[in-house]
Input
Amino acid sequence: MNPDPENDRADLDLLRQDDDRALTRLVSRWERPLFAFAWRYLQNTADARDVVAAVFVRLYQHRMKLRADTKLSAWLFTTLTNLCHNHHRWRRRNQTISLDAPHGLDSAGVLAAAVPAETPAPSDALERRETLGALAAAIERLPHELKTTLLLYHYERMAYREIGAITDCSERGVETRLYRAKQRLRTELGEFFAER
Output
């Protein structure tokens, strides 16, 4: 996360004055955390890049409409979560095959393949891949509100207040969403481990 919102405000002011360098600085500052969230949500590199690019296009288009006291991190992540949700719904209706996935693996396998291993035994590696695949699939099936909250908290390391600003929810609501997401994952993964 960006530790200094003053830099964002200054660059946003310069962007309103059509300073292209300000947009370049904002992109370089925010592209990586936005992409990380988008990839975890969509589990597809090309889709994540497209959605992040769309966020910056919208930032440029709406630069004059944003208030001076806008917290840019919240605006960017709110826009990103909405775009990810819309893209995810579209993708469910229009099934595709990910080119990111190694041969024979689905999108859950992409997550498992992205986690480095310390050269475990083949059976341990297979078990780890199956477990991570089951976790990724369980996260994929969470409703948007629970999935977004879980990803922002556990992967982006955001505080409840920041997540609340992005998801338009109280801090108590964020806590409840995290609890519900973990309960659902515990139930689904409990079934997965019981089968094994």
